[in-house]
Write a structure and sequence with these properties.
single chain, about 425 residues, alpha/beta, Aspartate Aminotransferase, domain 1, Aspartate Aminotransferase, domain 2, seven-stranded mixed sheet, binds pyridoxal-5'-phosphate, glutamate-1-semialdehyde 2,1-aminomutase activity, 4pyrrol_synth_GluAld_NH2Trfase
Length: about 425
Amino acid sequence: MNTSRSEQLYKTACGFMPGGVNSPVRACKAVGTVPLFIDHAKGSRIWDEDGNEFIDYVCSWGPNILGHCCEPVINAVKAACDKGLTFGACHKGEITLAELIKKHFPSMEMLRLVNSGTEAVMSAIRAARGYTGRDKIIKFEGCYHGHSDGLLVKAGSGLMTQSIPSGAGVTEGCTKDTLLAKYNDTASVEKLFEEYGSEIAALIVEPCAANMGVVPPENGFLEFLREITKKHGTVLIFDEVITGFRLSDGGASKYFGVTPDMTTLGKIVGGGMPLACYGGKLEIMQCVAPLGSVYQAGTLSGNPCAVAAGIETIRQIESIPNFYEELDKKSAMIENAIREKGLNVNRCGSLMTVFFNDERVKSYDEARACDTESYGRYYRHMLQSGIYTAPSQFEAMFVSYAHSDEDIAKTIEAIESYR
Ligand SMILES: *Cc1c(COP(=O)(O)O)cnc(C)c1O
C-alpha cells in the first residue's frame, strides 16, 4: 500500500499542530503507523490522499451511523447553509431537534444544545451541582467524559493509549471532588457512598463503557446505580455521547431499561456536525440560566447547520424499518468471525472491541491488561486488507447502516486471514 502522500502531509502537519493532529488518538502512535489523511468518504468507504480505499469502521468515532455522506443529511445541511451559517439567535430548527430528542429520550424533560460532548458533560455536572448544592462527583476508571479538567482522571482511551496517568495541567483542586469507582464493581460504589453519601452531587457513567474498549454493564449494574443514587439524592447521569441513538433510538437507557436523571448526547445526535446536548429532569434543568443560577452559554450553540444535520439523521433512523435489528445482524456476523478466529471480543449492538486478552473483559483493569502490541499487529493487518478500524486497543469498532453484506463479507475475509 502506498501512503507516501499521507506521510508527506503528516510531516508538514507536525510543524503546525501538536503531533500533527487535532485530537491525540488520530496520531496512530499506539499501532505504529503514520496517520492516513482522508480525502473523501461515501457510504461505508473512505479514501485517503494516496487513493487507497477502505471499509470504514471508525465512522468518525460514532456519528456516521448512516454511513458517510448520507444524501438527505447532506442536502439538509446545504439548505441550512444557504439560509445562513449562524445567527446567534433563536430559530425553529432548535425546537424541532429538541422535540425529536425528547420523543426518543422522554427522561430528558428539558434539554440544552451545545457544541461537543465535552461541553455537554461539563454542563450537566455543573447543573447537577447547582441543583443539589453538593460538590463531589463519582466517575468510573476507564470511562471517558470529554476533556474538562475535573473528569480527566483515569479517563479511558486517549490517556490509556499514550500511558498518561491523568494528564499534566490538571490541578489537584480541579480533581479533588472527583471520586473514582470501578466499572461493574458495586462494592467500590457502595464504599464511596458510605463515606461521602451526602456530599455527592452526581454519579456519571457510560451506561455501556466504550472508551476502554467496549465493556458492557454486567447484569444488574445499572439498576444498582439507579437505586443507590436515588437513595442518596445523587443525580444519576448517563453519558450517552456514544450510546445515544447507537444501541437503540432511546440509547442505552432504553436498551437496558434503566432511566437516569440526566443524559448527555453527542456524536450521532449531531449527524456529523459539532453538536451535542444535555438534559434531564425539569427541576434540574430549571436551575440553568436564564431560568436559574447555573450559568452555561455558547455563541454557536444550536447552530442551524448542525441542527439540520441532527434533525435529518434522527428522521432517517426513524424512517428505516428495523434499523437497529439490521445493525445488530451485521455486527453479529463480524463478532462471530472474530470469535471463530479464537480472538476475544466484546459486543453491544453495533459497538465492539477485539480484546487481546484471554479472558472476557469486564473491567478497566482487565482491559488494561491487554496485549497492545498484538492489537497493533491486528490493526496493521486489517488496514493492509482494506479495513479501517480504531488505531487503539481501547476504542470501539462502529458498524453503520451503510455497511453492505459485501462489506461485511470482505471484513470477515480479512479477519480470517489474520496471522
Ligand atoms: C466522545 C465522548 C465524549 C466527548 O465528546 P466530544 O464531542 O469529543 O467532546 C464524552 N463522552 C463520551 C462517552 C464520549 O464517547
